[in-house]
Write a structure and sequence with these properties.
alpha/beta; binds S-adenosyl-L-homocysteine; eight-stranded mixed sheet; Rossmann fold; OB fold (Dihydrolipoamide Acetyltransferase, E2P); globular; seven-stranded mixed sheet
Length: 502
């Protein structure tokens, strides 16, 4: 019955394994195109069901744990294959119909067909599985969740890690404060929306249910204005055409909006008319910028950013702290959950007002400014120079004087600080998906702070790094998964780690 909203009706991007083959492979019990029946026993972080045929693993697009499905093999490889569900034979009680009408076509969400409470439960399980499999950590069972006494003990090597239930949203829709929309050409002219799963074709999109409505409105206005003024759309095949991406932000606390036009060249024809149309049609717009990107690559922003009109930043606020955000700076996309994430980080930092704290990967200084309220001194380091400019501006804006920021790679700046005699009591890391650099972990182990707080958007690199810290004399005490990205396979974690004092 697999049809719309079941996530089973098309092969999709995730259905093509790297190095997979359409021919029979010796020892693999299925061939491409073959139909089979199986039970789904797990879910990958991409939201694919995990099935087995004679011990061989197939990732089944559309299947949910506990379901019995008929599926068709899309590709096979030596150790696993990919399939798509063709018929749901026995459904799970947790299956729901996805509210988004383009769910099957768009690759943005992976879990809309799973009940939200189950999504949260599954995200915790995904974290637990990674900690155990990659981190070789022992994790307390559900009963352990209530054992807060154990979580408070320091240096208790060997105690199982406590993984709390995922913190979810009460209304998990319309949460994103930033949209990054690829622009392309179709027969009718300029279109903008999303890349169709498994291809580089852009599909026009007007509504996205995880996007704040203000962003939808802004994107619509910019596309309309560009069409009206005949601004050419970028063609990824030829490298010709001007408008590549429209990036918009909405600061939820202040209502301010930013538009960034990513262009394949400097000159925008009718730039002034474009600016005035956007100003007329987008309430709250305070900043219209241009990012010039002439490289034929999937990277969105170019190196040069210009202000076409208005401010170079917009201002947002989290828990009473104000933040200036410039076009290329990282800012968490889910404001409601960000506050909860940062509160967990502050809690695990265990500050009394006496501590020296390092915030590595500090972005625009968000976590640093939170921590500064409870610490003696905070040092932040970040690789993007504009983000550090924002961070310094943010410290001034909030009258915070006990923070210092440096531009550079954390793994380079931290050893420098070490030589200068800066000895942190607590180190907070919040790295990108690839996790912490090995050199940074080594420096942390030399500095031996009493506590490390690890904020992670990728449970597998988190687990890898926790193993290194454990081997270096630290204990992972507790993990708080936070649902920053409902309906997608992503999960964010805050981890409290303590030094084992011998
Ligand atoms: N803590 C911030 C930012 C987290 S995102 C917040 O919550 O808003 C991760 C940040 O790490 C990004 O700003 C990215 O630019 C930065 N980054 C990536 N590699 C880095 C490195 N090697 N050293 C320092 N910062 C890095």
């Amino acid at each position: 019955m697999s049809g719309r909203n079941s996530k089973g009706s098309r092969g999709g991007r995730d259905s093509r394994g790297k190095g997979s083959s359409s021919k029979a492979i010796s020892g693999v019990p299925v061939v491409t195109g073959q139909r089979f029946v199986c039970e789904i026993i797990g879910l990958t972080h991409e939201g694919e069901g995990v099935g087995r045929v004679e011990g061989y693993t197939l990732f089944v697009h559309g299947g949910l744990p506990g379901e019995k499905v008929q599926a068709e093999v899309v590709s096979i490889g030596k150790s696993f294959g990919r399939a798509r569900m063709t018929e749901l034979l026995a459904g799970s009680a947790a299956r729901q119909s996805a509210p988004c009408p383009i769910y099957d076509l768009c690759g943005g969400c992976q879990l809309q067909h799973l009940d939200y409470a189950e999504q949260l439960r599954w995200k915790r399980q995904h974290v637990v599985d990674n900690l155990m499999r990659i981190g070789k950590l022992s994790v307390a069972g559900e009963a352990g969740l209530k054992n807060t006494e154990r979580a408070g003990n320091s240096g208790n090597a060997g105690s199982p890690v406590i993984v709390h239930p995922t913190l979810g949203m009460s209304d998990p829709w319309r949460y994103r404060n930033k949209a990054q929309v690829p622009i392309g050409v179709a027969e009718g002219g300029l279109i903008g929306g999303f890349y169709e799963q498994g291809s580089n074709d852009i599909v026009e999109m007007d509504a996205c249910l995880i996007q704040q409505e203000e962003n939808e409105e802004t994107v619509r206005a910019v596309k309309d204005a560009a069409r009206l003024l005949d601004i050419s759309a970028y063609n990824r095949a030829t490298g010709r055409g001007l408008l590549r991406h429209v990036v918009v932000r909405h600061a939820q606390a202040t209502g301010q909006r930013m538009v960034v036009l990513v262009t394949n060249g400097i000159d925008i024809p009718h730039a002034q008319e474009l600016v005035s149309l956007i100003r007329k049609r987008v309430p709250g717009v305070v900043s219209i910028c241009q990012s010039i990107n002439t490289a034929q690559s999937p990277v969105v922003f170019g190196d040069e950013t210009r202000v076409l009109w208005g401010e170079e930043v917009i201002y947002d606020e989290i828990a009473g702290i104000q933040f200036a955000i410039s076009p290329r700076s990282f800012f968490q996309v889910n404001p409601e959950q960000t506050e909860r994430l940062y509160r967990s980080a502050v809690e695990y930092a265990g500050l009394t007002g006496e501590e020296t704290v390092v915030d590595a990967y500090c972005g625009i200084g968000t976590i640093s400014l939170f921590l500064a309220q409870y610490a003696q001194k905070v040092y932040g380091v970040e690789i993007v120079p504009e983000a550090i400019e924002d961070a310094r501006r943010n410290a001034l804006l909030n009258g915070v004087t006990n923070v210092e920021f440096a531009v550079g790679a954390a793994e380079v700046v931290m050893p420098r600080w070490q030589k200068e005699g800066i000895t942190p009591d607590v180190i907070v890391v919040d790295p990108p998906r690839k996790g912490c650099d090995g050199a940074l972990i080594a420096t942390m182990l030399e500095l031996r702070p009493a506590r490390i707080v690890y904020v992670s958007c990728n449970p597998s690199t988190l687990a890898r790094d926790l193993r290194l810290l454990e081997d270096g004399g630290y204990r992972t005490v507790e993990v708080q998964p936070v649902d920053m990205f409902p309906h997608t396979g992503h999960v964010e974690c805050v981890v409290g780690i303590q030094r084992i004092d011998t």
